[in-house]
Structures are given as structure tokens and as C-alpha cells.
Amino acid sequence: MPIILTEAEAKALLQKVLKYSKADECEINLSGEQRGNIRYARNEVSTSGGITNQNLTVQSSFGKKVGTASIDEFDEASLEKVVQRAEELARLAPENPEYIGVLEPQTYVQSKGYFESTANVNPDKRADAVAKSLQQTRDKKLVGAGFLDDVHGYSAMMNSKGLFAYYPSTNVNFSLTVRTEDGQGSGYVIRGFSDFDKLNTETATQIAVQKCLGSVNARALEPGKYTVILEPTAASVLLENIFFNLDARSTDEGRSFLSKPGGKSKLGDKIVDERVTIYSDPANAELPASPWSGDGRPQAKTNWIEKGVVKNLAYSRFWAKEKGVKATPFPNNLIMAGGTSSLEDMIKSTKRGILVTKLWYIRTVDPQTLLLTGLTRDGTFFIEDGKIKYPVKNFRFNESPIIMLNNLEALGKPERTVSTESDRNYLIPPMKIREFTFTSLSDAV
Amino acid sequence: MNRRDFMQLTGMSAGALMLPTIPVMGRNVSPEALLENALDVAVKKRLADAALNAANAKGATYADIRIGRYLNQFVVTRENKVQNITNTESYGVGVRVIADGCWGFAAVVDAKSEAQTAKAAEEAVAIAKANAKLMKEPVQLAPQKGFGEVSWKAPIKQNAFEVPIKEKVDLLLSVNDAAMKNGANYVNSVLFQVNEQKYFASTDGSYIDQDIHRIWPIFNVTAIDPKSGKFETRQSLSAPMGMGYDYLQANPTDSIKGITTRYNTGYDMLGDAVSAARQAKEKLTAKSVVAGKYDLVLDPSHLWLTIHESVGHPLELDRVLGYEANFAGTSFATLDKWKAGDFKYGSPEVTLFADKTQVGSLGAVGWDDEGVDTQKWDLVKDGVLVNYQAIRDQVHIIGEDHSQGCCYADSWSSVQFQRMANVSLAPGKTPLSVEDMIKDVEKGIYIIGDGSFSIDQQRYNFQFGGQLYYEIKDGKIAEMLKDVSYQSNTQEFWNSCTKICDERDYRLGGSFFDGKGQPSQSSAVSHGSSTTRFDGVNVINTARKI
To answer: How would DSSP label each residue in A180-239?
Structure first.
């Protein structure tokens, strides 16, 4: 049997497994993926590999007693064994008061996240893409270190109430750090696509090269509050800390930045500038995502923050039932609306500020205020009178993305980017922020 | 599994799951399956030989194979509920080769036949050959003698996987109950157990069978002031250890009394939960720190993370050379500083050493993941930089002909590379207790437990928080503080070290989730120290309003 199953093959396999079930309810999740990567450093390939994985997970329940078992072998005996094992575990388990039962069949939106171009990548094609990058750094006597990682696979599920879902997807991420041989300059670029044909390692490399050469002889500025332009990847690592914390339960329990005194929440409150709208949409053509969540709930277009106001929080089905509200699942993608101006336009309109290519080592300092710390890296430049004047030494910041989005000056055109902290892809605009708090200088290049 | 996934799985992060399904490493299995015997060593040798022979036949000049069975068990609870009991097993094979002078790697899940391991070897050779065309200089591998058929087993007293689930659940629920009775509004607790059964074979003639155990009991207590809506947390002061369930069967001598109880090689989880609940409440009304310069007295439960970030990482040779430039970064501790022989990494009090042999530590093994016998060596001696951490394809760069034995892969499916050894601060040579150290401090802060942490990509500028902060005034511990973080520069910080308590206070801290590499891999590592004093460190106030 191939690792990547078609919809018909996945359905047939799931039906076969379901026939073994003797439990009150049964839910099966199935997935398979093929992954390939090349890693290079010092202008040389360092490691590379290919990994194949598949998994079938069975959740069986008797009343509120639930058991789960998984297997990665798909022969008849193994499939029967995994169902039996889940049922044995369910019989032994204590009652789970938070178990809600499996869902009725659902309807899902269409989302095209699978591209043959990515599925057909082989070691030679991967090496060719990297060669286009390496050639530039070698020719220019610079030092390249990068990573190209592509994956194609599918996920599917079926339950005893007749729900069936299938979603094939592909992705490629490419990142590159270019440094001068003396270590005095460093530039970065990162790209993420569902369609391998959209990845141009040659033009991406040109950006990192330009940033590297431009970052040599950085000057030290005093730490303090500055207007910054955050490129999309720099913004994403701050914003995803909002995304990760959209959970209704911890908000209702009083231990979230979205909690208010007396057990209340900020749902319905304006928490950031009114130009901020953050939503999820599995059918977005630029950032397609699975139209269903792991428990089979449909993913619909959902506004999380609309014109600065918190519109939705994510609920487990249990917590939604407790609260008597719709069980909106955590989103599979996140998109921030923006304007039409390019990064270049935003620089032109800046009297005095700092352009930030990348932020690094982001950690929460205070979950109550979502205060984060981290540093700029691989391309930090001083802007004056609409022009990049000179590179500046890297800063440590202590800033909350909530405070930051209240100090919003302008949003550019959203683009697909990758978080350098979580590797997740987002659609996020470059943004200009006033009074961004840098607290110390770093000698790091 | 990485740090973020673990935080989400265990409810330790303030938020919760964004992922549609809980990410776990490997497949879920029944508890009994964790005790099933792995493949017989003779079978593993056959699978290994098939791969090594196939690699040779396809033209590889070197090959190694790791046959790995990785077992995990998580018991996850909150307040009076068991949220999750997850047992996972992951079995597979990873083959690494050098062909045409270039590395190649291929991994295959559930490989139990010689045909499968041979095929993986052939794929690894094909990848190596495809990439060789991009190569400028061939890999230089330090010679390594073969050890024949050998084995190593972690010296644990009680295998945690043999302890009934009920006993673990009862422990965690009693911990939660104790926290709730002492003022907690919420409590999450987790018991995380790991068993790595690893078989390594190489064309050097080694066949190494190893059995490694780790355990990490951890909790997080939350206290809320309903009027102000403020919340504070206090995490457990436990350390992840290379031990069995014996870590939880503590003797009174394992507890170190003081302003709060700290723990050595045995952990009183229940006692710590009582303290944590009271301290989380106390934090709600604690004094917000006044920013400025303070002398810091750092407990080993805190200092381990500062050692990890500011010593362990910058002295990894692959980072120094630029192999991690695109992700974890490079290092300020460049080769010229090492060659000079007089680079003052710290004050003369400071000796920092790497060690893959310490019993009970997370990094202890008999051989590393490329068949090198493990050892102990100095990195910083009396304040001066003297060495790095390096593996077989790097040691020639520092003029050595034998690897230091710190190569590791977090799974059969990950390629092995240089990982941090246990890196520790040697205890002070003259007798000094924590109490005596505090007596000399006029204006200081005593920090216990690890908190927020961040450091730049060359390891100069860092910022650390903790779990508990106490003001020291005129040689005495005054009141609890909050909103404390300190910012410093690695060389400046280690040169501000003035006193180190003696070996009686030496304890381990550590992490299961040291992240490095692309694709990112997690490694478990311990860091030992005694309580240490650093003078005149910059402390910032982290309170904000949103």
C-alpha cells in the first residue's frame, strides 16, 4: 500500500477499521506523509534526508470511558489489534466527565492545499533549488547557511456516526542566512508555499545577500522607544503569541491576557487599533488549510479580532457546552488584513525609524500582559527621511503585541510568511509601529 | 516533541492548544506494551549488518545505523481530574552514510526486515551522491576504534514504566489537592517518563546496545486575585533527571531547607506543591522590584538555564564554525579567542566543564550516537576558555584526533549531530554555605527556579527571569519581590562572579527540550552548580499595563 492514500483508498481503509469496532462510539484518524530536506552551511551541504511516516489512531468509548491507541502498520492483523487495544484501554479508563461524544457528519468547504509540483520534488530537484542559492553566495565570497524542507501528505478521519473527512496538503519552507566571511554582516530571508513552483530560491537569495552586505559596520543607537517597521516574519513571531492564546477556557478561568477582573473576559472589547482585523479562512487561496479540525469540526471563515474588537475565542466542545455557546475550534490558519502599500512605500513614508528583518528567541515574560522579550537579528537598519541610512546594532526588546497593536501607524500588503519560532505559515502585512520598546543593545551579528 | 508542544500537551502554557490534535511523538500504545521486550540484540545485529553491507555495496566509505525504540509516558492532570494518560512507542531505523565524500541519511518507520534496512541504506547513499555535486570539501571523519558487541544501561533503582499508573495518578492528584488546599486557584501537574532503547552499529565495528531512562515530574500553580484580576504562577522546583521512579521516592536529606525548600537527587513533590500554592498567593501582593544594579545570588534551580544558554551553547563547535548560522546562530566564542589561550570567559573562580558520564544526569550514556565512548573535559578553566564540544567530523578543526563523544539524535528518524553535553559550573574550592554567602550581600536579589529566558544568536546579550525572587538587604533576606528580570552580557556576567558555594550545595537542573537543528531536534541535558554570586547585575522591572 502506498504511504500517500487517495480519498477513495483512505475511505476504504477507514471503513475496514470501523467494522472491527464493538464500542459505543469509535473515531479514527489517519495520516501519511513524505518529507525531504537539504540543510547547508558554510556554503556546503551539511545534512539532508528523506522521512516517511504514517499513522492510524483509534479512539473508542463506552459511555464516558475513553481509550486511544495508534499504529503505524496497516496490515489486517494490526488494524484489528489497534481497535481491540483502544477498546481494552477504554474499559480500564476512569470516566472522563469532559467527553462529549463523536460528531454527526459535517459539511466542509473546499480548500486546495495539495500541489503536484511539491509532491513531485525529488533529491535532484531539491539539490538544484539549493544550487541556485549556493552559487550566489559562493560567487560573492559570502557564506550561506540554509534549509529547504518539503512535505506532502494527507489526513483523514471517520467515526461511527458516519462522519468522513479527507484533506491532502503540501508545503515547502526555505530559509537562508547569508554572512560575510569576517562575520561582520548577516542577512536573512524565509519563504513558505504550498506550491513548490512558487518558490524562487534565486530571488530569495538575492534579498538575503543584499541585507548581509548592507548590514556591515552597524552603528550603535541608544536603546529606547523607536518607530519600527516590522517585516512580516518579524511581526509573525510576536502576533502568534496572540493566536496561541485565543483559548476561551483559560480566559474564563481568569488566567489569560484576555481575562478581566471578576471572571469576565475581553470578548467584545476593543483591545487594539481599529485597523487590526485577524481572521482564519481555510479556503484562502494564498494560505490554504484543512477545512476540518482534528475532531471533525468544520473550519469556517472566522473573525478573531475585527476592527480591533475581540470577536471570537476558541472552545473545546466540552467548554462550549458548559458555557452554552458555539464550539468554534482553534483555527488551522491565520491571516491579518492589511493595506496596499509595499514595504518600500512604508520606508519612504517614514521620517525616522528602524527596519526590522527578523526577531529571535521570543519568550513570554508576563502572560498577564503578554509581555515578550527577544532580539532583532540578521538585518536591522536605521531609516531617516524615507531612506535606509545605515545598519544598526541589534537590540533586545521587551514589548507586548497588544501594546504594539495599539501603537499602530500603518499596515502594508499582507504576504505569506513563515514564523521563525514555530515554522507555521501565516498571511501577515508588514507593519509600522511607534514607540516600540528596545531595552538593551547586543553585540551579536 | 519540542518545548512548545510539551507546554501545550501538558497545559503548562498560559494558553492552550492551537493544533487541531495533540502532538505526540510516536504512536499511542497500552501501558503493558511499554514493558514488552524490544527486538533481540541478535536480530538487531542482523538488521544492522544488512544496512552496513548494502551501504558498502553502493559505494559508501562509512555507514552507521541506529535502531531505536523510544517509549514515552505522560500522565497529565489538573485539579481533581486526570486529563490524559498517553503512552507512546516509536520504533524505526536511521541510516547515515558517507558516499562520494558527502553525508546522506534515510530513515524508515517500523523496519524489522533486512530488506527494509538495506533499502534505507541504499536511499541514504543515493541522497549523499545527489548532494555530493554541491560539495566543495569532503567530510573528514575522526578515526574511531570499534568496540565490538557492548552494552550500557542507566543505573536506575526503579523503572518508572513498571510503576502502576494508579500510583502515579494518585500522586499527582494528591499534589493537586495539596496545592488547592493551600490557596491555589488552579493547578496542572504532569509526570513525563522516557525510555530510549538504542542500538548503534557502524562500519568501524561497533555494535552498541543502550538503555536510557529519564523522568520529569512538574506542576504549575496559579493564584488569582479576583478583585484586580491579577494572576501569578509558581512552577515546581523539580529537575528533569536521568533517573527512574526513585527520583520521587525522596529521603529527608534530599530536601535543602532555607527561605524555600530546594531539592537534590530526590524530589518531595507534595511538599513543593504546598510551598508553591502559598508562594503563588504571596506573589500577588509582593513588592514590584525597583530597577537597578543588584548583586545576584542564584540558586542551582535557576543558574542551570543561564549556564545552558551562555556557556553550553556558545561552546558548541558546530555553532562556532557556522553550521547553525541559519537557525540557532553562531557564537561570540570564536576560534581566535580559544587559540589565544587567554580569553577571560569568567573570573578566576569560574571553571565550567562538559560531562557525558555523571550518574543521574540527563546526558549520561556509555557511547554517543556515533559510537564514541563518553568522557568529561574542561571548557573554561579558572576563568579562561580552553575547549569546545565537538564530534567526529569537526574535531580536526581544533587539532584533535578523537571526538569528545557528544553526538545525539532525538529519534531514529532524525540525523545525529553535535549536541550539548551536560555543562556544569565546578563548585567553590573553599567551604561556603548559602547562608554565609548571603551575609556579605548589601543590596541583592536571591533568585530560585527558572523562568523566562532569551539570548541573542551569538550568545552575548541575555535576559532571565525566575520563579521566586527575594530582596537581600544588608546581609539578610528581606521580602519577596516580583516583576524581576536581569539583563547582561555573557563575558561581563561570568566575570562578575565573585563567590561559589562548595560541593555540599552542588545540584543539577536541566531540560528535556534543548532545541537545535533543522528540522529541529530536542535533546535532554543537565547542568550542575552550587549557589553562586554575581555582583552588580542590571535588573529590569517587567510590569506593564495593557
So the answer is: ETTSS-EEEEEEEESSGGG--HHHHHHHHHHHHHHTTTPBP---EEEEEEE-HHHHHHHH
Q: How far apart are the first and last CA of chain A?
A: 50
CA-to-CA separations, B137 to A44, B32, B103, B126, B393, in angstroms, rounded = 8, 50, 12, 18, 12
Rounded to whole angstroms, the Cα distance separating A337 from A273 reads 13
| Side chain identity at residue A351, one-letter code | K
The H-or-E segment that residue A337 falls in is none
A298 near A342, Cβ under 8 Å? no
Question: Rounded to 10 degrees, what is the CA torsion of A62, A63, A66, A69?
Answer: 30
pLDDT recorded at residue B112: 87
Q: B109 is written with which cell numbers?
A: 518507520
- Residues in A closer than 8 angstroms to B517, CB to CB, are 39
Strand order from edge to edge, sheet including B376-381:
B384-385, B376-381, B352-355, B422-425
Q: Name B40's Cβ contacts closer than 8 Å, sequence gap at least 6.
A: none
What ipTM does the predicted assembly reach?
A: 0.94
Distance CA B482, CA B284 (A): 9
Which cell numbers in the block locate residue A283?
Answer: 479556503
In a 3-state reduction of DSSP, which class is residue B294?
Answer: strand
Please check the confidence at residue B207 and state whether its pLDDT lies above 70.
yes
Residues 73-92 of A with CB under 8 A from B: 73, 85, 88-89
DSSP A6: -
Contacts of A130 in chain B (CB under 8 A): 134
Beta strands in B226-275 (DSSP E): 230-235, 255-256, 262-263
Cross-strand bridge partners of residue A353: A383
Task: Read off the pLDDT of residues A349-360 as tens digits, 9 standing for 90 and up.
Answer: 999 999 999 999
Q: Is A64 helix (H, G, I), strand (E, B) or coil?
A: coil
H/E element, B520: none
Which of A35, A70, A421 is the best mutation test for B, with the most CBs of B within 10 A?
Answer: A70
For residue B1, the SS3 value is coil
pLDDT category at A405 given cuts 50, 70, 90 is very high
3-class secondary structure, B172: helix
Name the A residues in 199-218 with CB < 8 Å from any B CB.
none
Q: What is the mean pLDDT of residues A408-412?
A: 98
Beta-bridge partners for B220: B188, B235
Cβ(A156)–Cβ(A5) under 8 Å? Answer: yes
Q: Residue A248: which of A333, A321, A307, A301 has the closest Cα?
A: A321
Which residue of B109, B131, B136 is in closest CB contact with A72?
A: B109
